[in-house]
């Protein structure tokens, strides 16, 4: 795998989330939003103050791959409701982070290793993306309708599939 264009090592605290967004500004709103959600999930489900590494790679065809690594391979992300952002209850105070990531990302998944896991996602940021092949990431197929330019906001019509 290529060396990441950005690698941020930090302690997962609420104050660091805004620093991650600032550091990833050049990658666009969707990448910033997904990184914020993934770091926030670490804080909520693994613990505040644990070490986290945020990596971003630019890939062929205008894709950006974002990975957030934490030290707990057992605390796996769960998509609530299964219907993307619509699956999270409107009155709920939480539970929309992965639904938002699922709605914005071409694909996402989890890589587990001894002593750590990485939750990753891929997003398109260029107007003319090249379709990914099955060999790019085995076992994580692209979903149709997610090959257009990233919209920057879930409510924007082109962000939905």
From TrEMBL:
Recorded hits in Pfam families, A to Z, give: HATPase_c_2
Looking up InterPro entries in the UniProt record yields: Anti-sigma-factor_SerPK, HATPase_C_sf, HATPase_dom
Which residue intervals make up region (Disordered)? 132-161
Molecular function as annotated in GO: protein serine/threonine kinase activity
Q: Which residues are the signal sequence here?
A: none
Q: Which SUPFAM superfamilies match?
A: ATPase domain of HSP90 chaperone/DNA topoisomerase II/histidine kinase
The alphabetized UniProt keywords are:
Kinase, Serine/threonine-protein kinase, Transferase
Where the record annotates domain Histidine kinase/HSP90-like ATPase, the positions are 29-120
Source domain of life: Bacteria
- Please identify the protein, giving its name as recorded: Anti-sigma regulatory factor (Ser/Thr protein kinase)
Source organism per UniProt: Streptomyces collinus
């Amino acid at each position: 795998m290529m060396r990441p264009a950005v690698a941020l090592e930090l302690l997962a605290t609420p104050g660091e989330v805004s620093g991650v967004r600032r550091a990833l500004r050049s990658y666009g709103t969707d990448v910033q939003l997904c990184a914020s959600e993934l770091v926030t999930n670490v804080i909520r489900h693994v613990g505040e103050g644990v070490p986290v590494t945020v990596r971003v790679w630019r890939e062929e065809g205008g894709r950006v791959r974002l990975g957030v690594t934490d030290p707990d391979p057992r605390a796996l992300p769960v998509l609530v409701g299964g219907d993307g952002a619509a699956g999270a209850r409107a009155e709920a105070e939480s539970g929309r982070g992965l639904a938002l990531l699922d709605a914005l990302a071409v694909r996402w998944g989890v890589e587990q290793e001894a002593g750590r896991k990485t939750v990753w996602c891929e997003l398109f940021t260029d107007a003319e993306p090249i379709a990914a092949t099955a060999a790019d990431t085995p076992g994580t197929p692209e979903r149709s309708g997610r090959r257009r330019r990233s919209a920057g906001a879930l409510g924007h019509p082109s962000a939905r599939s």
